[in-house]
Amino acid sequence: MARLRSSTFRQSFDCNLFIFLLVLVLEACSLKLALSDSSHINIIDFLPGFQGPLPIHLETGYVGVGEDEDIQLFYYFAKSERYPEKDPLVLWLCGGPGCSGWSGFAYEIGPLRFSKVEHYKGSSLPTLVLNPYSWTKVSSIIFIDSPVGTGFSYGRTPLASQTGVLKQVQHMLQFLRKWLADHPSFISHPVYLAGSSYSGIPIPVLAQQISNVNEGGVIPYINLQGYILGNPVTDPSDDNFEIPFAHGMALISDELYKSLEKNCGGQYKKVDPSNADCLKDMQAFEKSVSGIHFLNILSPFCNIEALDSDEIIDGRRSLSVSEESEASLYAESANCQEIEHVYSRYWANDASVRKALGVREGTIGKWQRCKFNIPYEHDVRSSIQYHLNLSSKGYRSLIYSGDHDMRVSFLATQAWITSLNFSIIDDWRSWIFQGQIAG
Question: Which residues, including other chains, have CB under 8 Å from residue 29's CB and lie 6 or more apart?
């Protein structure tokens, strides 16, 4: 009887195991089918604005995420120009929140950029040229329009368009898993998350989520190795470093700085309305820096709202905008950093460009490089604890800062890194580029 029970148990176990494995196979097949059906991949050989065939592999598409895939996230993907079969895969998120992945593609680290040689006048499409300093020289990069409502990404319902840090992170996690399932040759590649500015909040949260699902055995496994952030928003205390930065750069006087320290007690963004002395000093500070470009204090401060107006972007000048006044606006703005941002609005709102990119008709109206009015809940205010957790798990991180950004200054970045209490293993040193100190 014992043998019979053993044999019966074994048969029952084998049968149950077979059913279990069959269920897993069916689930995997249905998952693969669902992933494939949810995505739309568009390979681009010719891109309006670029002369001739593209010498890079460029792909765009949508990936459906969220409940019933009511959120459609748009992306640009460029393969590594070196060893695409083994180089790292980078997911790049722009800041804002609400700035399109195209901003990172064309203005930061991507393989194409708008030509600075010609002064674009709005009569034809801006010219795109290759970027010799693109990160695609050593990695494959996905530039994502996230959160929903950014760039060409859209929600199918008003509820789907409501987002925040935690929802954005969950949607990006779903996006990456589905994208990898649709691109199985990249599943084993080292993965790095990267971004700048406000992405300093969602990127560490996303890294933590990926770590959690990897530890839970969720498939596909994401081979996360670390993350990269430039001038990242990290903690509400970041704002308090604008004034020390301005003083260190000699943008305000010693007298005003000392008065601010005394009257505001180091808290400059949440001033007690009853603190008249602090309010007076803050008004003096705002007046002193009113002509300064906060994101790059060495750049000219320009107001090109008229140039960036819908009347001109449409390519149909209103009666109030003549060719002469438009030309004058361009001449006045020729040295402005923001003038390049106007190029992308002309470019991305052109019908031939949208067709080449595979943008679905009727899904969005005017494309904007950054949309700052999306319904977004800031339900994670600080990412410091996430940095600490990820470092303790052995993930690599590179945090870099430009030294002329007053909005998220290097002082703020140094302060929160110091708060982690890590040991210093390499002393401060100059960074040399082409024989010169570059930082």
Answer: none
Q: pLDDT tens digits, residue range 173-223?
A: 999 999 999 999 999 999 999 999 999 999 999 999 999 999 999 988 999
Q: What is the pLDDT of residue 118?
A: 58
- Can you spell out the DSSP letters for 316-336? ---TTS-HHHHHHHHHHHTT-
Do 80 and 172 lie in a common domain? yes
- In sequence order, what DSSP letters do the residues of 191-244 get, joined into one string? EEEEEEGGGGTHHHHHHHHHHHHHHTT-SSPP-EEEEEEES----GGGGGGHHH
Instruction: Decide if pLDDT at 304 tops 70.
Output: no
pLDDT of residue 109: 97
Residue 325 lies in a domain: no
The structural domain count of the chain equals 2
Residue 266 shares a structural domain with residue 207: no
Between 72 and 7, residue with greater pLDDT: 72
Which domain covers residue 264, as residue numbers? Answer: 252-288
Long-range contacts (CB closer than 8 Å, 24 or more residues apart) made by 341-345: 341/103, 341/107, 341/308, 341/369, 342/304, 342/307, 342/308, 342/313, 343/114, 343/120, 343/126, 344/102, 344/103, 344/106, 344/107, 344/114, 344/126, 344/369, 345/308, 345/313, 345/369
Mean of all residue pLDDT scores within the chain: 86
The β-bridge partners of 74 are: 62
pLDDT number for residue 119? 55
pLDDT computed for residue 122 by the predictor: 54
Residues 136 and 257 in one domain: no
Query: What pLDDT is attached to residue 316?
Result: 32
Q: Does any domain span residue 315? A: no
Q: Are strands 89-93 and 154-155 parallel, antiparallel or unpaired?
A: unpaired
* Closest C-alpha among 369, 318, 322, 365 to residue 347: 369
Written as one letter, the residue type at 154 is Y
* % the chain with pLDDT above 90: 72
Angstrom distances, CA of residue 45 to CA of 90, 128, 136, 171, 356: 22, 14, 17, 29, 9
Q: List CB contacts of 275: < 8 A, sequence separation 6 or more.
A: 263, 264
| 63 & 168 share domain | yes
Whether omega before 220 lies within 30 degrees of 0, making that bond cis, reads yes
Looking at the structure, tell me whether residues 79 and 162 fall in a common domain. Answer: yes
Q: How far apart, in Å, are the Cα atoms of 192 and each of 35, 63, 229, 387? A: 22, 19, 11, 14
Q: pLDDT value at position 123?
A: 58
Q: What is the pLDDT of residue 40?
A: 72
